[in-house]
Amino acid sequence: MAATKREREYARKRQEKWEQRQAQARARRQRTAAIVAIVAVLALVGGGFVVANLGGGANPAASSTQAAGDCPTPEIGARSGGDLPDPSAAHDRTWTATVDLCAGGTETDLVLELDGAAAPQAVASFVSLADRGYYDDTSCHRLTTQGIYVLQCGDPTGTGTGDPGYAYGPIENAPKDDVYPAGTVAMARQRDDGESMGSQFFIVYQDSTIPSDTAGGYTVLGTVTSGLDAVQAVADAGVEGGTGDGSPTSPVIIEGVETQ
After folding, report:
1. Is 159 helix (H, G, I), strand (E, B) or coil?
2. C-alpha radius of gyration, the chain, whole number
3. Which phi and psi angles does 124 have, rounded to 5°?
4. Of 89, 202, 208, 225, whose CB has the highest number of CB atoms within 10 Å?
């Protein structure tokens, strides 16, 4: 397939995904508006209760319905990512990926700059998965807040064990000093296995030293150029159960990823 034809096909798919996400967002807003209207009616009917609690904080019913309606529910389950693309598909150039992120009821564009020259296999895989819609409506299942500071995403099963049906290596573009600055986007993998990368990636929200293992370091495929504050806000909310490693207290959903 010629590059221009492939680019037109990618553009068409991106447009379709964008229209689908806009329709979903409108539906969510309509549901939220309907719920708020119902809560308002109930508040008028039970005016004494509302007035009695004006100084005591938010209306519990309003808070819970808003939190439930603002972000989509992830579609949990194994998915196929197709075939592993050749590294040449990264075209030895810089890519821009816009991740539509929803966290804590707030939607944010997380913009990534992907280095197709330094990490061609990882970038080719990420772009291919994004354009197939593999990451759409998936959760970021892991947050670490002690020792290393990362948010891990890209597993449709939400378990940390999911993959796109393929694995690849070797490790590309790993820092020699094991230091991953804030904003780094790198590929997750199994310990001591440099050939086990798939779809899972992590975003470093605070400078972290991540020790190499027997396989080496971790493939750095890009950096966050905009929106890192949203990831920091997730980290500030902490990990479920108060531990330093686990599911984020504030659920994080990737609604879609567009690349160019």
Report:
1. coil
2. 20
3. -60, -40
4. 202
